[in-house]
Amino acid sequence: MSEVTRGKRYTSAEKAEILTFVDQHNAENKGRGGAAAASRKFKVSQLTISNWLRDTGGKGATSKIKNADISSVLKKLGEVHKKMAKVEDELTALRKEYASLKGQL
After folding, report:
1. 93 lies in which domain range?
2. Structure confidence by residue, pLDDT tens digits, 30-84
3. What end-to-end distance do the CA atoms of the chain give, in Å?
């Protein structure tokens, strides 16, 4: 018997990044082509993106935000992402130090 494999699972952050890209692309291109561009850029099927859009209420991650506010939200999203990456790096270093100290016992 062959083993059943499942596709890649995406985190909420990955979905938000992709849907934000879709919204930004659509805002710049008269509401068209965002899902196709995101599919090419992030290597995610258009069907998957379509399902995520449907699950978020239709227009994407920023559907409740006015177009004028999109750039400020994207800027804040980038800042938060940088902070998260820094904290994850610090956590990795602490885990290594912990393992080293534990190994000395």
Report:
1. 12-103
2. 778 889 999 999 999 999 988 888 887 755 444 455 555 666 777 788 888 888 8
3. 47
